[in-house]
């Protein structure tokens, strides 16, 4: 994720709304096994009283957990915990740092390699660069509370890579640093599959060559559609799960039936 240097001397992330704080607190309790798989969360009224907020705020927080696949979606009943995976939703463009914090982990990052070189054919295609253009390639290890979780191999166009090159090797979130420079991520395309760990993966993650890793390849773009990064991230099993939320109301079938798409909020 375009995230490579956030927490650690960096200014705090933008403040979360109350429902997001409630969702983060409940998510942490669920992932730590506080309710157990198949257990029930307290009633909405009890949660509202605990956090000193309205039931509407609690419903918003529960909606976030439902989208992440952590609780059932039934309204009017106590929500059932579906599982304790450390899910990250593609519905939100969360950096690794922000996601880690949201599940109660302390994110870390360390650059182990940074090179400037001519872009290869794939990089030129993904980043829409002309022949002869240069890129910065960053190899970084990401940790959760000090434990290796992911190897990040990210390629940046030269003008953005130059900003990354100025950061300290142990900067926690590159995403936040780029935002401070006016570089904003608006969209991302993700491809998720399984790969076998190569020698570098094994050395950096502490696994064995040939072990299965969850790979996420991602191209992120700015509000104007210009590519910001092309990344190949490889996670150890058990460190993350991804969720995708679909809605029939916004699908192609519904539109063919004449149902207008929902407005963007």
UniProtKB/TrEMBL annotation:
Keyword flag Translocase: no
GO molecular function, one term: DNA-binding transcription factor activity
Keyword DNA damage found: no
Keyword annotations from UniProtKB, A to Z: DNA-binding, Transcription, Transcription regulation
CDD domains: WHTH_GntR
InterPro entries: Bact_HTH_transcr_reg (IPR050679), Chorismate_lyase_/UTRA_dom_sf (IPR028978), Tscrpt_reg_HTH_GntR (IPR000524), UTRA (IPR011663), WH-like_DNA-bd_sf (IPR036388), WH_DNA-bd_sf (IPR036390)
TM spans (from-to): none
One annotated GO biological process: negative regulation of DNA-templated transcription
HTH gntR-type domain span: 16-84
Domain of life: Bacteria
Gene3D superfamilies: Chorismate lyase-like, Winged helix-like DNA-binding domain superfamily/Winged helix DNA-binding domain
Classification via PROSITE patterns: HTH_GNTR
This protein's name: GntR family transcriptional regulator
């Amino acid at each position: 994720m375009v995230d490579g240097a956030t927490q650690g001397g960096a200014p705090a992330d933008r403040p979360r709304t109350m429902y997001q704080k409630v969702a983060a607190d409940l998510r942490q309790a669920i992932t730590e096994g506080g309710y157990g798989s198949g257990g029930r969360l307290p009633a909405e009224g009890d949660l509202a009283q605990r956090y000193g907020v309205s039931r509407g705020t609690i419903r918003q927080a529960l909606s976030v957990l439902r989208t992440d696949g952590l609780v059932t979606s039934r309204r009017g009943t106590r929500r059932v915990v579906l599982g304790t995976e450390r899910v990250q939703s593609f519905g939100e463009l969360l950096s690794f740092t922000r996601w880690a914090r949201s599940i109660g982990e302390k994110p870390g990052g360390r650059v182990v390699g940074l090179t400037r070189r001519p872009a290869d054919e794939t990089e030129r295609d993904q980043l829409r660069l002309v022949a002869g253009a240069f890129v910065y390639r960053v190899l970084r290890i990401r940790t959760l509370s000090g434990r290796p979780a992911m190897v990040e191999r990210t390629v940046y166009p030269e003008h953005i890579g130059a900003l990354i090159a100025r950061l300290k090797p142990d900067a926690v979130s590159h995403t936040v640093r780029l935002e401070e420079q006016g570089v904003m991520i608006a969209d991302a395309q993700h491809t998720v599959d399984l790969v076998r760990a190569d020698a570098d993966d094994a050395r950096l993650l502490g696994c064995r060559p040939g072990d299965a890793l969850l790979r996420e390849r991602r191209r992120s773009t700015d509000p104007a559609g210009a590519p910001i990064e092309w990344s190949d991230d490889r996670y150890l099993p058990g460190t993350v799960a991804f969720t995708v939320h679909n809605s029939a109301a916004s699908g192609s079938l519904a539109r063919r039936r004449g149902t207008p798409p929902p407005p963007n909020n």
